[in-house]
């Protein structure tokens, strides 16, 4: 769980340090924080006993829940008008 939380924090911090705007910081945080537990589960099932897949399953579940909670939190903290216009411009192109 700490690995996931540190990923969110460091993703956001690095994005801020390199000067990305808020929307991109949030995106970077989620991309870095969410790890591929599904891949871990698949590899464990393929190459080892089924019991080795349990950490991957737990990890996938935790990452899905924590990512959804973070996205929900940020959705309640809207971007300022200038940044929102930039995001909408990119989406409509």
UniProtKB/TrEMBL annotation:
PANTHER family reported in the protein's UniProt record: P3 PROTEIN-RELATED (PTHR10361:SF28), SODIUM-BILE ACID COTRANSPORTER (PTHR10361)
Full protein name: Pantothenates transporter PanS
Species annotation: bioreactor metagenome
